[in-house]
Amino acid sequence: xxxxxxxxxxxxxxxxxxxxxxxxxxxxxxxxxxxxxxxxxxxxxxxxxxxxxxxxxxxxxxxxxxxxxxxxxxxxxxxxxxxxxxxxxxxxxxxxxxxxxxxxxxxxxxxxxxxxxxxxxxxxxxxxxxxxxxxxxxxxxxxxxxxxxxxxxxxxxxxxxxxxxxxxxxxxxxxxxxxxxxxxxxxxxxxxxxxxxxxxxxx
Length: 203
Fold this sequence. Notes:
The protein is of the alpha/beta class. It contains six helices and seven strands; from the N terminus they run H-E-H-H-E-H-E-E-E-E-H-H-E. Strands 1-7-2-3-4-5-6 form a seven-stranded mixed β-sheet. Strand 5 and strand 6 form a beta hairpin. Helix 5 packs across helix 6. 34% of the residues are buried.
């Protein structure tokens, strides 16, 4: 939410969270792709909130690991007790024998926007669009930086000669996969506002 408040500051909507709305339900991410999970969450929360809803799913794809951790980035290793640091350690362990030039990777983010349910039986939310953003980099050998979270400390950006976690939040919000998708989302939300006059969005 901290990132999205900045990323969507130019959208013509008031951004509110599930906590703001008092919605305790947690939608299980059962999709096999980022897009499926983004759509699953946005559609489910649009029905629960009755509001225009934006949700995303994102993660890290490493070429040398055949795209892993991918859609299971937040569950990498399968241990529910794993911390971000544990998952980074596992990633580095799995890449221990991989040469630098083959440590290519990318963050990808899929963002889905759904309309609230129509007045019909059964009620169904409707997808507006699903957008994708990405940023390419390398997986370096050890973590550096404390500005990010997740895999940011080992995601090296050659053009910056820094990891994602070494960039100020303002700069990360300019170049990240989530920022890339959010720019597309703002354009869609601008069009929706002109048509519907919907007063707020739920994320």
